[in-house]
Amino acid sequence: MKIPKICLLLGFLILPALRPVAVAEPPKCTCVNGNGTYQFLNAPVDPSDDDPHCPADRADIACSRKLPSGWDHTCANNSRMECFLRRHGASWRMACSERLKGKCACKSAHPEWCPYCGASGHEWDTEGLEVVKRQLEVERRIFGKRAKLIILRTPHFYVVSDVRSLKIRTKSGGPRVMGAHEIAHVFAQRAEVAYMDFVRHFGDRVLLQQPMAVFVVAKNRTQEDIQATYFGGARTNIIYGGGSKSISGGFPGNGFAVSLQKSRDDHGLHLQVRHSIAHILMSCWIKVNGQERYLPKWVHVGVAHWLARLPRPFREMATFCGNESTPISNNGKKWHVRLLKIAGSAKSRPIQRLFEINTTGSLDLDDHVRAWSYFKVFLEEDRERFVKFISLLRDGKDHRNSLKDSFGCTPEEWDRRWKQRILGRRPTVAATAKELDSSDPTRPGAKERASIRTETDPVTLAAKIRALQAINDPLTAATVVPLLRTDNELVRE
Q: What is the average per-residue pLDDT within 385-391?
């Protein structure tokens, strides 16, 4: 069989640029190292429909059955809810106030140390227990002495909950009701998962010197009491940045409050928690500062909508902070339709004007949707440059210079690429080879690529392609490969 010349030429040009690709191994369960799933921890109930956080679970592969070092096998295999929640706390490094009540109901040698409760067991996180014991007395000044109150301290959060029951959707599809103890554990886990999601995309440069307070309460009145006492006003539901001394006796450095009464259900409550966590994490990323100079308002709202809507169940949902002055009402559905109108309209707010808005109340719904889309699309398709752009803004650089240093273009060009991507006129927001060369003419091979792109004479163009001999970089490959589809036989050969 005779191989077409175009295929030979394609192989001749491209093969030198290829590198051996290792066959990917199946994702491995990471639960034995911490942050275990309900399956790994042998939960007696079906987990919620939250997105999986374990690599194996995400791939629908059964989690490992290997126990963490020191755990008692008999206890780890029982189906008591109390034992499960102690395993859950140990796996997620949570200190829970419910452990102050004494021994677990398991039959191991040292039930007070569950799950390290075997004959050779040991105490664990006694320092954390002292913290939650002290904080219980602090929080009862607001909640009252008789309140069913649960406090957890995790690696990054301080969670306080008085919600006694909550109906959830489970992984298997059916509903069930969680009790107060499990509710507190689940929201502490969800907070840590939100933190992991943020760090996975932006890098581990969050500066949380004190834990973030997360108040998950049943009633609006309790939320308002917390906000009036800790945040400076009944309508102020969040403290950004860090270093606050007014929250819970000064143990957390920032935080927020949400109520089930306002959020209505588990999904609404979870969405609001992720939204608020994103606000605070961005105000503590690179530097601890929530001022507009270091945290432009479009970034402030965009990151919150992005992190809130990232999980699969929330992709058609939205929430807006209670202390945002403009009363925006929108449930988050069909934002992709609204984006088409924004990207295709000549009346959309110019990008420079969006960048210069310095109050959250001046942002309209289209601005919120647009800011969310910037985060979503650029983090998916050009993450490295986008993270550098936001990091420069967090350092106090202006938008125009930050975009020049990260994307090599103006705000208007950056916005144009995004609009073309939304309208389906380009395959990705990532810069093309031509755009990258235009931003940096000194880039290796840029001169040769520019010469090939602008050449109109077929004979000369063919000579320039032959002179390359081999292609060993992706920008040159992206420049030459489209020319193989030309009608000119000389260029193709």
A: 98
